[in-house]
Amino acid sequence: MDLTTALIVAYFALLAVSLRKRWGTIEGPWLFFFRAFFPNWKFYHGINHAPRLYVRGQSESGGWTDWRLIYPRLPLRGLHLFHNPAVNLALTHQNLVDHLANDINDLPDGADIQHKVTYQLVSRLARQALEGGQWGDHPMMAQEPVRDLYAFQFELRMELPGGQSSQLMLRSPELRT
């Protein structure tokens, strides 16, 4: 057994022991990475409200953009059956947004969501999208990136498919770049 395999086995063994003590509650920044190996199995589409990430940016000139949706819907191609890194990355980003929504729902009274790893990662995702981030050769937003980004905000909204209904779940404070 090589060193890499031994480290992976040790990592999963440590996580299994930790979960056995807490019975399914995954807490703490190092246990968060365990969730990266498994998708979020809560399905929202067609049944209930689903979490959607919206962002807006402020340029150095001071003007704020409108709220923009960050939601991966990339065209499917036959090659994606065998190789689809851009689609996988986009779905991973949406899975992160789903996990943030779950963390908000599970947050104890008086706790601050800004200390959660999911909040910090979604904050980075929002900034990356406003600065022109892409999933492969597809931009994360339909709109142009914000030039000279000075500050940004993001919102997590629960929406029905087709945007029929929207409920604000979280609005970040203005974050400086």
Could you explain the architecture of this structure?
With 177 residues, the chain is an alpha+beta fold. The protein has 2 domains: 1-38; 47-176, no CATH class. Helices cover 34% and strands 20% of the residues. Strands 1, 2, 5, 6 and 7 form a 5-stranded antiparallel beta sheet that branches. A two-stranded antiparallel ribbon has the order 3-4.
Question: How would you summarize the topology of this molecule?
Answer:
Layout: H1 3-22, H2 29-32, E1 50-59, E2 68-70, H3 85-106, H4 117-130, E3 134-135, E4 138-139, E5 149-159, E6 166-171, E7 175-176
Helix pairs in contact: 3-4
Features:
177 residues, alpha+beta, 2 domains, 5-stranded antiparallel β-sheet, two-stranded antiparallel ribbon
Brief overview, please?
This protein has helices spanning 3-22, 29-32, 85-106, 117-130; strands at 50-59, 68-70, 134-135, 138-139, 149-159, 166-171, 175-176.
The low-pLDDT segments are none
- Count of domains: 2
If you compute it from the alpha carbons, what radius of gyration comes out, rounded to the nearest whole angstrom? 18 Å
Instruction: State the end-to-end CA separation.
Output: 45 Å
Give the strand content.
15-25%
Tally of contiguous helical segments: 4
Gross geometry: globular
- Approximate helicity band: 25-40%
- Helices and strands, in N-to-C order? HHEEHHEEEEE
Query: How many β strands by DSSP?
Result: 7
Based on secondary structure, the structural category is alpha+beta
How is the biggest beta sheet arranged? 5 strands, antiparallel
- The mean pLDDT is 83
